[in-house]
Each structure stands twice: as structure tokens, then as C-alpha cells.
Design a protein that fits this description.
two-stranded antiparallel sheet; 239 residues; 5 helices; disordered N terminus; mainly alpha
Length: 239
Amino acid sequence: MLARFAVHQGKQISKARLLLQPRVLSTVTGSERPIRSEYPSPVRHGFIPEEWFTFFYSKTGVTGPYMFAAGLSTYLISKEIYVLEHEFYSGLSLALALIVAIKKFGPSVAKYIDKNIDEYEQSWESSRTDQIKELQNLIEHEKKEQWRTDSQKMIADIKRDNINMQLEAVYRERLSHVYQEVKRRLDYQVQLQNMERKLAQKHMVEWIVENVKKGFTPDQEKIILTRCISDLQILVNKN
């Protein structure tokens, strides 16, 4: 009965110690969040680690740790290396009082501490969730800004194309203006040459006619005039 009571009280003490200690974090994978261990390493008799017992099993068997503890205690007490003075009995009474206090007040204290831990974990989880949402909003905002930057590039390309089209239109307009000016000047030169040719022909005809007239005598003019009149009369009679 005493051993069962000690084991039970040891479990209660271990659980209370776990709740009072800072949370122990262990990483499952590199991408998952750390997880707090729910229970500590197993112990015996409330405070002795299980590893201390399993260390003796391969050499002395199951009874090895207990025989070692009993023999060491007997040796220390018999040789008065460890003296059982009044502080030892005070420690026993204090341990008994602690066991009774833990047995009576342990569940309520554990429930209160669990509630505080749950509230703290919920607040931490809510802050983590809010931070994740904020980071996601920042990512979405960054994506929108990148999209806007791409649209600005498209707008810049469109403006560049418009400027190139305007430059092309101005270039073609200037080419047309140059063509019209060159054509106008060439037309002027052609008209000038035609006018000079007409004037030259006119003066040439007038000069020839004038010289021919000078070469005719009055008798020849009368003969020619008479012949012309006769030719006209013949033409009239035929009609």
C-alpha cells in the first residue's frame, strides 16, 4: 500500500512539476510548429528517473537498483556517514505534509494551472494566427504591387509605341512636305522652260514672218493675194 501510495503521489508531483516548469518544445519536422511535450520522462517513487533503474537491469537484474539503494543506505547509516539526526525526521514530517497537501489541493491547483496554460496557449495561438493573416495580407499586397508594376511596364510600352507612331507620322508628314515642295519647284521649272520655249517659238515665228514679208515685193503680194482669192472662190464653188 505504501509503495502504491508513493507511486501515485510521485505521479501527481511529476504532473504538477510539469505544469510549473516552462514548456518543453520538440520539433516534429522542419516545416511544422514546435509541440509541447504533454508528460515528462517516466519516474519511479515520484522522483527517481526510470533510467536509473534500467541502467542496472543488464548487470544485476530487476532487484539490482533496490539492493544497491538498500546496501548503500545501510552502509552510510551504519558507518555514521549519514547521521539520522532531528533534521531527517523533520524532513520526513515535511514530506508527509507535502504529500497530504498535494493529495488534497493538487487537483484544484493542477486544474487552475491547466486553465492558465490553456488561456496562454490560446492567446499565443491567436497572436500567431493574426500574424499569419497579416503576413498573408502582406503577400497579397506584394503580389498586387508586382501586378501593378507589370501593368506600369505595359503602359510604358504602350506610351513608347504611341511616341514611335507619332514620330513616324511626323516623319511621313515631313517626307510628304518635302515631296510637295520638290514637285512644286520642278513644276515651276517645267512651266518656266515651256514658257521660254513658247516665247522663243513666238519670237521665231514673228521673226520669220517679218523676214518673209520683207522679202515680198508689192507685185508679188498682189499676185499671191489674187491667187488666194481665186483659190477661195474655187473652194466655195465646190461646196
